[in-house]
Amino acid sequence: MRLLTDTGSAVATFSRFTRVLFVAALLVCAGCAPRSETEPVTPQWLRPSTNGHYLVSAAGNPYIVQADSAWWLAERSTREDVVRYLDARRAQGFNTVMVAATLDHGKARNAFGETIWDGDASRPNPRFFEQIDFILKQAELRDMHVAMAPAWVKHVTPPRGEGLSVHNAYGFGLWIGERYRGHPIIWLMGGDDVEWHQAIVNEVARGITVGVTGSEAGHDGVVMTYHPAWAKSSAERFHDSQWLDFHMAQSGHCGRTLAAGHELTEADFERRWPKPAMDGEPFYEGHPLCMDPSRPYSTPQQVRNGLYNAAFGGGAGIAYGHHSVWQMYQPDRKGVNGPIRYWYDALHDEVAGQVIHLRRLLESRPILTRVPDGGVGTAAAGIRFTRAEDGTYLMAYSTDGAPLTVDLAGLSGSNATLWWYDPRTGAASEIETTRAGGEVTLAPPSPQDWVLVADDASQGFPPPGTRIDQPLDHR
Q1: Are 55 and 62 in contact (CB under 8 A)?
Q2: Helix, strand, coil: what percent of the chain each, to 5?
Q3: Other CB atoms closer than 10 Å to residue 270's CB: what's the count?
Q4: Alpha-carbon torsion 387, 270, 193, 230, what sign?
Q5: What pLDDT sits at residue 345?
Q6: pLDDT tens sequence across 274-322
Q7: pLDDT higher than threshold 60 for residue 354
């Protein structure tokens, strides 16, 4: 199987003959035997970096997930919809799509009239998964990854829904893990899980691990995280879980949570024995404040604020969402919480094409040494800082165009090269090269959000947004 990567990423490639093809459904239960351990297992294609803060490939190349939320893609899309959606997102630079195998209580029929299981999760329906097979195949053709929730736990467990329980969770995980063995999936446990459902989540994770690897003894070949409820991080309950490779937070869709992405990711960054962390659900584009369609909808600047807040908090990945797209809203469907555009029109809304600029900014400087804030500037409302631990660069983000004050004495060299970086266009403009001593205050070019980048001039970094060859992570 060819490992899915961005164009130009030096991520390991594996033989296509390692893929295990499933041509028939397997009836499973908690007592089913695992697959033979002699069968090939895809090496873990993403792992935490040695310092525990970022994701790297099997070869040690830093890797930033740029994900889009398409939770209802599997249940609400035709084959043509999938192609149209993936073509658009790939053109915008996304390398990952987040989907749920089932989001709607496990009882809804997909576009082909199939439900995910017959009665409950102990009887998964292989015909339902043919659409997921297609999504994975089409994503692979576009060098994109799929981050998949096997089931949206909040909706498929009592009292909200039925179908998944502690009694059948392992068997369901085993079945779906075996079906997709060899695919470089990011497995998303949970799903808006207010009650956490730890016992069920642990059993699903255990089943998937055995299904993919053929053994409970190791975790190689599996990449997992957990999608929590609002203003929470997976670290709250699962930090010590061996199956969890990186943390996911959800800053959510209320005004009070617009800065939560930074707070949550920074808190996870500072944990003892850290794991990589990212905000998996910030304020969506085209989303009403606090789920209330009578209140204002998100502005592009607010959406960018959420993305940059989380990244500058030490985020190892970026997750974007559009309120119309995640639910595949179109004329024949009742919308959830007031979507105002159809999904196929909303695909091209403003911020969707701007997320790539954040990823390119992060990839234009060494990733593995980056830390949040670090005291490089004067704290102020709406200002976020991130810097290289070795002093080779620093970045400051003004959420609303307020002047930025940074301390250049923290840079490793005697001279500093200063740049403005535009989150809307990805354009960088050099300000000046100056002595790196003491504080400097600069006003952004316009009353919008801007990034100030200060480099140790001796490093010879290219303009912000120009990708560099990243230092490898060596174990």
Answers
A1: yes
A2: 25, 20, 55
A3: 12
A4: negative
A5: 97
A6: 999 999 999 999 999 999 999 999 999 999 999 999 999 999 999 999 9
A7: yes
Q: Are 192 and 154 in contact (CB under 8 A)?
A: yes
Each residue's pLDDT tens digit, 376-413: 555 456 789 999 999 999 999 999 999 999 999 999 99
Per-residue burial over 415-435, b = 16 or more CB atoms within 10 Å of its CB, e = otherwise: ebbbbbbbbbebebeebeeee
In sequence order, what are the residues at sequence separation of 6 or more whose Cβ sits closer than 8 angstroms to the Cβ of residue 4?
95, 139, 140, 143, 144, 145, 184
DSSP string computed for 335-385: PSS---S-HHHHTT-GGGGTHHHHHHHHHTS-STTEEE--S-B---TTEEE
* DSSP 8-state class, residue 410: G
Q: What is the pLDDT of residue 45?
A: 80
Burial 71-92 (b: 16+ CB within 10 A, else e): bbbbbbbeeebbeebbebbbeb
**Residue 155 confidence (pLDDT):** 83
Rounded to two decimals, the pTM is: 0.89
Look up residue 150 and give its amino acid.
Answer: P
Neighbours of 460 (CB within 10 A): 8
Q: What is the DSSP string of 21-43?
A: P--S-----TTPPPPPTTS--PP
Structure tokens belonging to residue 121: 């999760």
CA distance 414 to 434: 9
**Average pLDDT of the chain?**
87
> What DSSP element (H or E) covers 303?
helix 300-312
Instruction: Let me know: does 255 contact 295? Beta carbons within 8 Å.
Output: no
Cα–Cα dist 457/157, whole Å: 56
Residue 264: predicted pLDDT? 87
Task: Retrieve residue 436's tokens.
Answer: 């790196």
Q: What's the pLDDT at 171?
A: 96
Q: Looking up tokens 């599996």, which residue turns up?
A: 222
Average pLDDT over residues 222-232: 90
Question: If you average pLDDT over residues 154-166, what whole number do you get?
Answer: 81
The dihedrals phi and psi of 28, each to the nearest 5 degrees, come to: -125, 165
pLDDT category at 361 given cuts 50, 70, 90 is: very high
